[in-house]
Specification:
Layout: E1 3-8, H1 16-32, E2 35-36, E3 40-41, H2 55-65, E4 69-75, H3 83-89, E5 101-108, H4 116-127, E6 137-140, H5 147-158, H6 165-172
Helix pairs in contact: 1-5
Length: about 170
């Protein structure tokens, strides 16, 4: 069975970024048949991100590296992703996420920041070896009350690019 990880890089605990990412994860799991793994909310473990060794962080890194799918979510900070997320992703070497299909997700204050997900997080994930076949999700938080409608629209438009587990296995066989 394939697996899906959710990594949250928001410095606010229990954030809207997490709610959006987990709602999208549920939709992707339903579409692909992937098993949802426990969400990693980096803010809950920020003090460990710069520790070496860090067994908990190493376990989360392995979870992401071994996942078939991953949602990497962050709010937009200074037109990019958060330092919290960067600190976590810096633990991987180039190509360290080979075999992971990643969906970058940004929560933004306005549509003016929508391209940040494509110009900042997508290139980092590709550098780390992840496949990023879909448009990134740029979710404008003023539209939070319409989240189901907006996430369903994203899945309708982009979900066809995410192969169900059976199709992925046939390609790799």
């Amino acid at each position: 069975m394939s697996t899906l990880s959710v990594i949250i890089g928001n410095p606010k605990p229990r954030s809207r970024t997490r709610l959006i990412a987990e709602a999208l994860a549920a939709r992707i799991a339903e579409r692909t048949g992937a098993e949802l793994l426990p969400t990693v909310d980096l803010v809950d473990h920020a003090d460990e991100l710069f520790a070496w060794p860090a067994p908990h962080v190493d376990a989360w890194s392995a979870q992401l590296r071994d996942s078939d799918y991953a949602i990497i979510a962050t709010p937009t900070y200074k037109a990019s992703y958060t330092g919290l997320l960067k600190a976590f992703l810096d633990r991987y070497p180039a190509g360290g996420l080979q075999g992971v299909t990643a969906i970058p997700l940004f929560t933004t204050a306005s549509d003016e920041h929508a391209l940040a997900v494509e110009f900042t997080l997508r290139p980092l994930l590709v550098e780390l070896g992840a496949s990023v076949p879909t448009r990134g999700v740029a979710f404008s938080t003023p539209r939070f009350d319409r989240r189901d409608e907006l996430l369903d629209a994203w899945v309708a438009a982009e979900g066809g690019l995410l192969r169900p587990a059976e199709a992925r296995l046939q390609v790799h066989a």
